[in-house]
Amino acid sequence: MGVLSGKVVVVTGGGNGIGRECALLAGREGAAVLVNDLGGTLKGDDAGSAGPAETVAQEIRAAGGTAISNSDSVTDYDAVASMFEQAKKEFGGLHAVINPAGILRDGMFHKMAVEDWKAVIDVHLNGAFNVTRASIEHFRAQEDGAYVLFTSTTGLIGNIGQANYGAAKLGVMSLSHIIAMENAAKNVRSNVLAPFAWTRMIASIPVKDEASAARVERIKKNMRADQVAQIAVALCADGAKDTTGQVFAVRGNELFLFNQPRPVRGMARVEGWSPESIIDHALPALKANYTDLGASASVFSWDPV
């Protein structure tokens, strides 16, 4: 008996990396798993293949679990809706969705192609909309359901060369929070994870200096996809029903709860503000509380546990 015994879980991007580990662990924890993966490249620029998803489904079955595969794209709403119908028809229900499916098309913003912006937004943000919108009415009707969506420190903190990815991932955080707010009374919960793990997405980051090379080596050695899967699966379990609307990060054996934007300091002026008074008084007073421009490496500056 595992923590997901009797549950039906859909895992997108389940053919590789974090998605693969989430699917395998969900299967070991007793869930019937639909493994979804387009089977495309990291850039999402080919037709894809059913092979990766089916390989993971076979591995779950070989270990004594229950699994089927699906190779549709999360960017296609109708296909996503059909995927959930496939899970319900095959397994008799649907209880949780884990959605790490993603692509990368990195580049400096002033050089970013329009198609690269749209492609990344489509997979990450529109994909998150598709998997939640296509299943939310089912979850509300049964008054039970869990979403585990994926954000990134690129969205929460920032990273040079990933404006498209960061914008999408911060959007996912807001989407998840509002889903949690609107559906708490129906026992439908939604949380997001910002993972640190060595995957093909991390492997694609160019190494330009010794500092970045050292950081990549730390990720490769100490931060694994299977460590991220532990909390993803936990958040789908009944034991986590009082956790919703939260943002977590996973870094090796470390778990972090992120804060969410709230005012850090305020100023008022009875006679009102003018551009001059803002420049002369407000901005200098607020400056001590500005957020710096450091990337996630400046926030997580120590080696992972």
Task: Give a brief rundown of this model.
The chain is of the alpha/beta class and 305 residues long. It is 45% helix and 14% strand.
Explain how this protein is built.
The protein has a single domain, classed as Rossmann fold (3-Layer(aba) Sandwich). Helix content is 45%, strand content 14%. An eight-stranded mixed sheet has the order 3-2-1-4-5-6-7-8, with helices on both faces. The radius of gyration is 20 Å and the shape is globular.
Write the layout of secondary structure elements.
Elements lengths: L7 E4 L5 H12 L3 E5 L14 H12 L3 E5 L6 H15 L4 E4 L14 H29 L2 E6 L2 H4 L6 H21 L4 E9 L3 H4 L6 H13 L2 H10 L12 E5 L2 E4 L17 H12 L9 H4 L6
Parallel strand pairs: 1-2, 1-4, 2-3, 4-5, 5-6, 6-7
Antiparallel strand pairs: 7-8
Helix pairs in contact: 1-2, 1-9, 3-4, 4-6
Enumerate the strands of the largest sheet in spatial order, edge to edge or round the barrel.
3-2-1-4-5-6-7-8
Helix content: 40-55%
Query: Can you tell me the overall shape?
Result: globular
Classify the beta-strand content into a percent band: 5-15%
Number of helices: 11
Per CATH, the class reads: Alpha Beta
Low-confidence stretches: none
The CATH superfamily is identified as NAD(P)-binding Rossmann-like Domain
Question: Do you know the CATH architecture?
Answer: 3-Layer(aba) Sandwich
Identify the quaternary structure here.
single chain
In this structure, how is the largest beta sheet organized? 8 strands, mixed
The fold-level CATH name is Rossmann fold
Order of helices and strands: EHEHEHEHEHHEHHHEEHH
